[in-house]
Design goal:
The longest helix is centred in the last third of the chain and has 20 residues. A hairpin with a 2-residue loop joins strand 4 and strand 5. With 399 residues, the chain is an alpha+beta fold. The radius of gyration is 22 Å and the shape is globular. The strands form two sheets. A twelve-stranded mixed β-sheet has the order 7-8-9-10-11-1-2-3-4-5-6-12. A seven-stranded mixed β-sheet has the order 14-13-17-16-15-18-19.
């Protein structure tokens, strides 16, 4: 979803470097016990409100702040608000049998699904997983989630399964270190209340690292006005966030913008020359962790297209890198693909012109151009079943 873009997805999935030593069984058990104590503390907290403020440092050195404001009411109500540099981007309120989601840039629509006292399930039903959005761990715990569900929530929709790899306490802070395929996440817990206090995070390696620090603020009691539905007067309900976004304005049906892009070997591809074929473009950047998962699916699609004999072309379109130097961009892209063991056709958008010409689709995102050269399909965020979905859409466009 537009409001989720790479900044939010990256901010939810930043990781610490691998630990220098393996944790002992005793440390692992202490870490598990500390996380379970945190889960139980939230479960027993009753109504509350909590905020997580993340300060994010990009590879370019630029700093941004994202805030997550969430909580539960006395009657199993729940809310989640995402803010970028203090500006509200999205709001979800769940109560009275339904959950409504609004986006700041869409004035005439909202997304709605049934709500049965489980914010995580409602967000899943509304398609939030595709945008990298999940219920906060505190809310999951307060609504009866077990330790596995609590750990799943700490993954924030992007990380793979977490493994406890370290534990440390000094009297003022308890730290549990968790490892996923992408790296590790360290969670700081208050030794007195057992609740979340801070995160220390890094994503990526070398020059592509994104760093962040997170601070939690917990307030006991009824969140009050935060649990009120936003004004939905005159808005049309959509079943998913993706439908909300498509209704919100990606210009499907318009001619695809002309673009000439470099390939990794120094050649060029003109999109206009591909008329008569269905063209799939996966917009990505090396620093975007959600893009890594998307690229795996794109590689599968590219291999399928190459061997199918069908008029289908699939490209991973690298853009929004920290450098505008074409050779440095090529190096960064090659380094990431090599590290991930990926082999697929890549196009380089060095000046961001193509990204902007395609109506700022976000990262990761997928745009499909029909044989007639018009924008035919659009997917925002990471789509778990992307390969199967896109193959079906391509088949429709080839009919």
């Amino acid at each position: 979803m537009t409001y989720q873009r790479a900044a939010f997805l990256a901010s939810l999935t930043l990781l610490l470097p691998a630990l220098a030593r393996a944790a002992s069984p005793e440390e692992i058990e202490k870490g598990r016990a500390a996380l379970d104590a945190a889960r139980l503390a939230y479960q027993k907290s009753g109504a509350f409100r909590e905020t997580l403020e993340l300060t994010i440092v990009r590879p370019s050195g630029k700093t941004r702040t994202h805030t997550y404001d969430y909580g539960v009411g006395p009657k199993d109500e729940a809310f989640l608000v995402l803010l970028n540099e203090g500006k509200e981007m999205t709001r979800f309120v769940a109560r009275e049998g339904k959950m409504a989601g609004t986006a700041s840039y869409v004035e005439d629509r909202y997304a709605e699904v049934p709500y049965r006292g489980d914010l995580a399930a409602a967000l899943g039903a509304i398609g939030a997983d595709q945008t990298g959005l999940t219920a906060p761990a505190a809310v999951v715990a307060s609504q009866g989630g077990d330790l596995q569900a609590f750990l799943h929530a700490l993954r924030q929709g992007i990380l793979g399964p977490l493994e406890i790899v370290g534990f440390h306490e000094d009297g003022s802070l308890v730290e549990v270190e968790l490892k996923a395929e992408e790296g590790t996440l360290t969670v700081g817990l208050d030794p007195a209340t057992h609740r979340l206090r801070q995160d220390r995070l890094i994503l990526g390696e070398g020059t592509q690292q994104v760093k962040a620090t997170g601070r939690y603020t917990f307030t006991s009691g009824d969140p009050g006005a935060a649990l009120a539905f936003p004004d939905l007067t005159g808005r049309t309900a959509m079943a998913t966030l993706q439908e909300l976004e498509r209704g919100g304005g990606y210009p499907l049906g318009q001619p695809a913008p002309p673009a000439t892009l470099r390939t990794m070997d120094g050649g060029t591809v003109r999109l206009a020359d591909l008329r008569g074929s269905v063209v799939v473009l996966d917009f990505w950047a090396t620093w975007c962790v959600a893009c890594w998962g998307s690229l795996k699916h794109t590689a599968e699609l590219a291999a399928w297209a190459s061997g199918s004999g069908l008029p289908v072309r699939v490209f991973a379109l690298n853009t929004l890198e920290k450098t505008s130097d074409p050779e440095e961009q090529r190096r960064l892209a090659a380094e990431l693909l090599r590290a991930k063991g990926l082999d697929l056709p890549v196009l380089l958008d060095s000046g961001r012109e193509t990204y902007l010409a395609f109506h700022d689709p976000g990262l990761p995102s997928l745009v499909i151009i029909g044989k007639d050269g018009r924008l035919a399909r659009y997917h925002s965020g990471f789509l778990e079943d992307m390969a199967a979905t896109v193959k079906g859409e391509v088949a429709e466009l080839l009919e």
